[in-house]
Design brief:
The structure holds 2 protein chains of 2 kinds. By secondary structure, chain A is an all-alpha fold. Helix content of chain A is about 70%, strand content about 0%. Chain A has a single domain, classed as MetI-like fold, CATH 1.10.3720. Chain A is globular and about 75 Å long. Chain B has 2 domains: about 60 residues, no CATH class; about 170 residues, MetI-like fold, CATH 1.10.3720.10. Chain B is mostly helical. The chains are: A mainly alpha, B mainly alpha.
């Protein structure tokens, strides 16, 4: 018990205390101050104001929509990557895994600025290549048009997300016994058939955990948005986190911002409940 | 189709797959590199140049020169990450031992407290943490980043180390106790050496976590180059010098290459850690 004390104290100071504090902020009228003890208590009025604003619902829908799309892509691409590492001959496996791990090593916000340069509408290679192969007449305004900007965020996010998902799924795929696969080949099952009726059912638990884990990450996405579009054009690509960050530190509306933060927490927490119930069996260390 | 044909087809397909995935994973990095060796100003030339006619290292000289604080940001990141890792590993090892080896009443609650903490979105804790650091007078100091990062890495580290501890045979420990060694001595002499790979991989992951952390670093450094970490420095560079992307690119290369190389070197450790922490 004493041994766990330093860690628990740390969690209390930097995780649990701030959560309660944020919750408190959200019940007070706090503009340009965080001194909630001397600020007017307004109950649920921040929530009422926020819930009545179109901006909130737009941001809420964008964040959840982004999560669905990005996580689906993360897992699908990650699965393709993971399967590839098992498909290629041993000699290429190391190289392939090295490629896949590179996006993972780059800090998210730097990754966002790299993509901002890739997607530059004047001299970015992606727009240029699209023009050269004749798909479009002029380079698309990837970061200035609403729908394209949303797509850009998904692409930049998935660049790293697919790698993370791939390493997750490799762990799961490695558990499939070689004999199972071989006997399926002998029975004449094609690669697609083999994947859907043999591999997928076996790795399904891993896929499920990866899905929950990536969803939590996507729901609280901040760095990629902040670095790539800054929420723009306007606030159309703001997520709950990036909108709240600006409300906190640019507009100093601590009460209002906290309601966004609390909503983010509730969303992530809801997914987290599934996650914990799923991984609980691994909690039994000494029984 | 005979066996030989099939082998050839397998090989061609494999090369194709490796190429496609390679391009996807390396393209942004390659583009940053190409931009970094373009003479300043030519990165905005139309039509787009895929390789400069006169490659140069001038941009590197510029960003490593006196006008910029790139080296400083690398040093800052190294200090913050090292400090955080030392703190994390100390706390995580102790708590992991308690979780995996001891029977105490609130063991399962401790585990839950850790796992729940691992899910907390940074945005929920950022404002109160900022206020706390301001009250303590720690804004624009390394401590404002080290202390919270120490804790942010705890859930994953503790879990990882605990799963290694769980594999140490109890008999070994009991033998040490019979020989008269105390709890701490048993930990240091018997359990730690066996769990060393787990601790190492937790350390690498914790290091990378705080190296890449942006929201907190950005908030508590408030534009002070003296404490800005790499992600904050590159982000503000890319915003401030919007017109000289060849500089931003050179700065990005200088700051991310060491970490990419480190990750490739420690690949096995990182992957083991990732899958142990995740798949479980």
């Amino acid at each position: 018990m004493v041994l766990a004390f330093p860690a628990l104290l740390g969690l209390l100071v930097f995780n649990y205390y701030p959560i309660i504090q944020s919750l408190l902020y959200s019940f007070f009228d706090l503009d340009f101050t965080t001194d909630w003890l001397n600020a007017p208590f307004i109950g649920f009025q921040n929530y009422a104001t926020v819930m009545a604003s179109d901006q909130f619902w737009y941001t809420f829908l964008f964040t959840t929509g982004f999560t669905v799309v990005a996580v689906t892509l993360d897992i699908s691409l990650g699965m393709l990557f993971a399967l590839s590492t098992f498909y290629v001959p041993k000699g290429m496996r190391g190289l392939l895994r090295a490629f896949i791990i590179v996006p993972w090593a780059i800090p998210k916000v730097i990754q966002a600025s790299m993509w901002r340069w890739m997607l530059n509408s004047d001299v970015g290679p992606i727009g240029d290549i699209l023009v050269r192969i004749g798909l479009v007449e002029e380079p698309p305004l990837f970061l200035a048009e609403r729908v394209l900007a949303m797509g850009s965020i998904v692409a930049a996010y998935t660049w790293k997300g697919a790698s993370i998902a791939a390493f997750f799924l490799m762990g799961g795929l490695a558990l499939i016994p070689g004999e199972v696969r071989e006997s399926a080949i002998v029975d004449g099952a094609g690669p697609l058939r083999r994947f859907f009726s043999i591999s997928l059912p076996i790795v399904m638990p891993t896929v499920f955990v990866a899905l929950l884990y990536r969803s939590q990450d996507a729901l609280r996405v901040f760095d990629v948005v902040y670095g790539l579009t800054g929420g723009g054009p306007g606030t159309s690509t703001d997520t709950l986190s990036s909108f709240a960050y600006n409300a906190y530190f640019r507009f100093a509306q601590f009460g209002r911002a906290s309601t966004y933060a609390v909503v983010t927490f509730i969303l992530v927490g809801a997914v987290g409940t599934f996650y914990i119930s799923r991984v609980r069996r691994n909690f039994s260390f000494r029984d | 189709m005979n066996k030989k044909q099939r082998a050839i087809r397998h090989k061609i397909l494999s090369v194709l797959i490796v190429t496609v995935i390679g391009v996807w994973c390396l393209a942004p990095l390659a583009w940053i590199f190409i931009t970094s060796v373009k003479p300043m100003g030519t990165e905005y030339r139309i039509p787009v140049e895929y390789w400069p006619s006169e490659p140069t290292l001038d941009n590197y000289r510029t960003v490593l020169g006196e006008r910029f604080t790139i080296q400083r940001s690398i040093l800052n990141s190294a200090i913050v990450s090292t400090g955080s890792v030392i703190g994390t590993l100390t706390m995580a090892t102790l708590s992991a031992y308690a979780i995996a080896r001891l029977k105490f009443r609130y063991r399962i609650h401790t585990l839950y407290a850790m796992q729940i903490a691992g899910m907390i979105p940074p945005i929920v804790v950022i404002a109160p943490t900022f206020v706390m650091m301001r009250a303590l007078g720690l804004l624009r100091t390394y401590w404002a980043m080290i202390l919270p990062n120490m804790v942010y890495a705890l859930p994953l580290s503790s879990f990882l180390i605990a799963s290694y501890f769980a594999n140490v045979p109890f008999e070994l420990e009991d033998a040490a106790k019979i020989d008269g060694a105390g709890t701490l001595k048993t930990i240091f002499r018997i359990v730690l050496p066996i769990a060393a790979p787990g601790i190492f991989s937790a350390g690498v992951l914790a290091f990378l976590g705080s190296w890449g952390e942006f929201m907190l670093a950005n908030t508590v450094s408030i534009g002070s180059p003296a404490v800005e970490t790499v992600p904050v420095a590159i982000q503000s560079l890319s915003r401030a010098f919007n017109l000289q992307w060849s500089w931003v690119a050179a700065g990005t290369m200088v700051t991310i290459m060491p970490i990419i190389i480190a990750v490739l070197v420690f690949q096995r450790v990182v992957v083991t850690g990732l899958s142990a922490g995740g798949v479980k």
